[in-house]
Design a protein that fits this description.
- The protein is of the alpha+beta class.
- The protein has one domain: Ribosomal Protein S5, domain 2.
- It is built from two helices and three strands; from the N terminus they run ββαβα.
- Strands 1-3-2 form a three-stranded mixed β-sheet, covered by helices on one side.
- It is globular, with a radius of gyration of 12 Å.
- The mean pLDDT is 89.
Amino acid sequence: MSYFYLRTTPGEEVKFIISVSKKVSKKAVIRNRIRRRVRPILKKLDLPTRKATYFVVAKPGAEVIKGKELEAEILGLIRSIRN
C-alpha cells in the first residue's frame, strides 16, 4: 500500500513541501513525527535535477511506516518523477 503521493509544479528552484493533514491524525505530535521522518530521507537522497516544487502528501496510515520501508517508498516516488 502507498502511504504517500507526490505532485510536482514547475518552478525556479528545487523545493520540497511535506504535507500531513488532519485526516492522517488529529494529533499534531503524530503529524509532526511523520514530517520529521520524511525530511532527512529527502535530504539524503539524490535530488532530482529538474527545477520544480515537489509536494509530498501523506495519506492515512503513514504514521505506521518507518525506517527502510519509508525510505523505499520515498525513493520510489522520486524515481517515478524522473521517468
